[in-house]
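Technical annex B. To support the medicinal chemistry partners, we prepared a structural model of the target in complex with calcium ion, based solely on the information shown next.
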Amino acid sequence: MKMFAKAFAIIAIAAAPVAAQPLDGQMVGGSLLATQDTPTQFGNATGGGQDSAGGSEVNQLFGSISGGTLNLGITGNLEGNFNKLWIFFDAVPGGENVLSDDNADGGFGEINAMQGMTFDSGFEPDHGLRFEVGGGFLGIRYFDLIDNVGGDIFTAGGTGDLPLNNAAGALGVNIGWDNSNVLGVDGASAAGAATATTGWELAIDMAAFFGSAGPVGVTAFVSSGDATFLSNQVLPGVGGAGNLAGPGNVNFNNIAGDQYATIVPEPATLSLLGLGAIALIRRRR
Ligand SMILES: [Ca+2]
Ligand SMILES: [Ca+2]
């Protein structure tokens, strides 16, 4: 019995809740899924403003699913010229391993400029988010590739409304976004990728956004504003390749490694904790 109590005590320590970090786009971390391996060819921002003048990059990707929430973090920055950060998720059966031309993205249908883009086999995205900011407008939109619908998650007036601190968006998506990163990769080297600490922090209600408990496959990349041109900033990375250019010609099967990562739900530690507590109470009697 002592052994059991000890085991439960260890589980209880392991399951002790970590203090919730503020969703502010700073100190972005969590379970590391990928680190950028490719210098940015979309410019390296050095000014430290929320408009990230002169550059876009994505440095590290973090993710976990706990208690029905997908916690996603990306360090990096997006140039305030309506360039777009796209995040594609594979969370339910079905989807588009090759992007078709019948999608809606809540914006001006830029997603359809990526028709023909082919993801790694095994990754069949069904949902996604797109981020953009520019003069006078900031938009975070969702898309559903199965139902061919999209819409607003959160919109605001532009770079002046950044950073976002625990912004409550539609469909159970809560957002932190600090767009001032000057660290991470630059135009010549990816060696500093892990030095970036600011960017996007998302807490996504799995049931509300996906109607699924997971697991979730994820990929993230940066495109031009009209999505007719893809950068080389992809997570997981493209191994030092240059800008990917026309999306319709991009086939991630032709780039070494998987340009997607899989996030598996964490075990329900709370129920174990409950069992442990019951065992400890019984032992005392
Ligand atoms: Ca940088
Ligand atoms: Ca690949």
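Notes passed to the chemistry partners:
The first strand starts at residue 32 and ends at 35.
The pocket of calcium ion (ligand 1) is lined by residues 44, 57, 183-186 (CB under 6 Å).
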